[in-house]
Amino acid sequence: MTIRDLLRRTLVTASLAPAVRTNGTATGTAVDLRGYDSAILTVQFGTWTDGTHTPSVQHSVDGTTYTAAAASDLDGSFAAVNSAAGNGTVQSVGYIGAQRYVRVVMTTSGATSGALSAAYVISGSPRNAPTV
Q: Which of 12, 22, 42, 106 is found 20 to 30 A from 86 (Cα to Cα)?
């Protein structure tokens, strides 16, 4: 069996740093997909205490003006976390849109203590490898 090294064929970038999120919207750092032909957006949840935490994806052609990514731009979808069943879960969606920049947005409502969450963009299929 051949084992292939993904370390030098992917690039992992934090969009939302790990933090406890309460009411409001946390907009992640944009990730430039230039030089990559595929991407996965991953959201990780830690301990949920209360509230509804809804991750979504935004994309942009120019890195300035962002819009919500349509379902046709994503392979899969994120589910809102609103109970302890979301503790320690990881959700991933593939980005199949054509725009250069992506970011994760976390919208939280009904939270006093909130939930721990983080989001990452994994860029893959590099045009020039190794990536590290």
A: 12
Q: Given a cut of 80, is residue 62 above it in pLDDT?
A: yes
pLDDT at res. 1: 63
Q: In what order do the strands lie in the sheet with 115-126?
A: 10-21, 115-126, 36-48, 90-95, 74-75
**CATH assignment at residue 95:** 2.60.120.1110
Specify the number of domains making up the chain. 1
User: Which pTM does this prediction carry?
Assistant: 0.93
Give the structural domain span for 56: 12-124
Is residue 120 in a domain? yes
Instruction: Give DSSP secondary structure letters for 55-111.
Output: EEEEEESSSSS-EEPPGGGEES----B-SGGGTT-EEEEEE----SEEEEEEEEES-
Q: Is residue 3 part of a domain?
A: no
Mean pLDDT to the nearest integer, 59-79 = 98
